[in-house]
Amino acid sequence: MIRRSRTIRPRRIFNRRKSRWLHPILAVAAVIMSGCAQGEADYSAAQSVKDIQVRWVSLDHPVLFEAGASVLSSSERVRLDIFIAGLSLRDSDRFMVDTGSPGGADPLAGARANAVEARLRKYKPGVIAQAYSGGQAPGQGVRLVVGRYVALPPNCPDWSRPSASNPGNIRDSNFGCASATNLSLMIADPADLVRGRTLAPGDGQALSLGIQRYRSGAVRDPGAIQTTEE
Predict the structure, then answer these.
(1) Helices marked H in 107-224 — which ranges?
(2) Which residues pair with 55 in a beta bridge?
(3) What is the CATH number of the domain that holds 118?
(4) What is the DSSP letter of 68?
């Protein structure tokens, strides 16, 4: 008995008939995607960090002496006092005296520098003015140089970029303005923003007293804080 071969036709899994809901769904998806897409106008360069600019500034004042003398005259004392009074001296100021003596130390130039330093101590006791040969001192005198670091706050507030729309999660243009401005106004010595201070040798015995009191139960209570109302 001869069996006839049976042709197996592949079954159609998906119907070729297009759904009547396909086009509306695609249209709604296109509208949603276009609304969420970030346009070219929304992009902007990332804002720079609000840094404090620290600058070194210096003011100088020529101090004249009579020929061969190292004592300030009354007129030069008045001129020097006016210059110092107009500086509003700070604890972080640096003082230098240009003796103008090239090729080594001149006793007369050194004595004149000491006279200027002594006058400075009238306004800042214990001040030390470093003498150096800068070559810019007047012929019959020295040049007092007062230098200081100045902290310049950033240009704030900065609302150059609107903060309402930020799809790119970019740093706000005003970010960090308050912190940088407050620090620049509060810091005692702006030089600390340039480099840290050298720590003095620690006293291990004094530092261990707190641990010893803690272990022995002799902890000292902090002083009471009192407030006044005006």
Answers:
(1) 107-120, 177-186, 204-207, 209-216
(2) 150
(3) 3.30.1330.60
(4) T
